[in-house]
Amino acid sequence: MRSHAYRSLISPLRPQVTPLRLASTLSSRPLSSSAKHPRSKAVPKTIRAVSTIPFIGAFFSSNRNTDSSATMSYPDQRSDDQWRAVLNPEQFRILREKGTERAGTGEYDAHHPSKGVYNCAGCDAPLYTADHKFKSGCGWPAYFDSIPGAVTRHVDNTFGMKRTEIVCSNCGGHLGHVFEGEGYPTPTDERHCVNSVSLRFTEDAPKEPKSKA
Ligand SMILES: [Zn+2]
């Protein structure tokens, strides 16, 4: 009985579950509210075995992952108040509160310079070069790689779906997410799906954090 009840509760959510590599438009969303219920595959088996506990556990593990990334220490340790003083409200929402800009609205979505650098809009650390950028059609700036060490990943396996958040390695500012294996003809087959709001482009050469000179 309980199992049936849960099935009927869960099944309306199933159409939202789309394998990442099959639906570039869906999967390319930097995982906002639409990705919060994609637990369909595991649900029937799990429910039969242990009732509701794993389901609740999934929410706790989600919180734990979020917390762990938030408490990681970064060289730039400004407080929220200090960030509010230098960021506009939209930058604060996205960089410091892990928000997402609407698809297709970002300043750098269709921005394809031949050279230049995309710096962190919070702390100005160089993150991506123009050479890393490619046209993904997803509605957000897409990069197949970053400047070495500039971007830190936080993997979250909640709901049985791997999501990898990317943040600025210098200030921890939220950039977006990385998706792998989508079949883009790039050297890495990775797509760093980044909010334009998190970036500030400059034509200047990168500050070369990797430089050995
Ligand atoms: Zn930063």
UniProtKB/TrEMBL annotation:
Name the cofactor(s) required for activity, per the record: Zn(2+)
Q: How is the cofactor bound?
A: Binds 1 zinc ion per subunit.
| InterPro entries per the UniProt record, alphabetical | Met_Sox_Rdtase_MsrB, Met_Sox_Rdtase_MsrB_dom, Mss4-like_sf
Q: Which UniProt keywords apply?
A: Metal-binding, Oxidoreductase, Zinc
In the record, biological process GO terms are: protein repair; response to oxidative stress
PROSITE patterns (alphabetical): MSRB
- Give the matching Gene3D superfamilies: Peptide methionine sulfoxide reductase
Please write the reaction equations for the catalytic activity of this protein. L-methionyl-[protein] + [thioredoxin]-disulfide + H2O = L-methionyl-(R)-S-oxide-[protein] + [thioredoxin]-dithiol
- Provide the E.C. number(s) assigned to this enzyme: 1.8.4.12
Domain (MsrB) ranges: 80-204
GO MF assignments: metal ion binding; peptide-methionine (R)-S-oxide reductase activity
Please name the top-level EC class of this enzyme: oxidoreductase
SUPFAM superfamilies, per the entry = Mss4-like (SSF51316)
Q: Which family does it belong to?
A: Belongs to the MsrB Met sulfoxide reductase family.
By its UniProt entry, which PANTHER family does this protein fall under?
Answer: PEPTIDE METHIONINE SULFOXIDE REDUCTASE 2
Protein name (database record)? Peptide-methionine (R)-S-oxide reductase
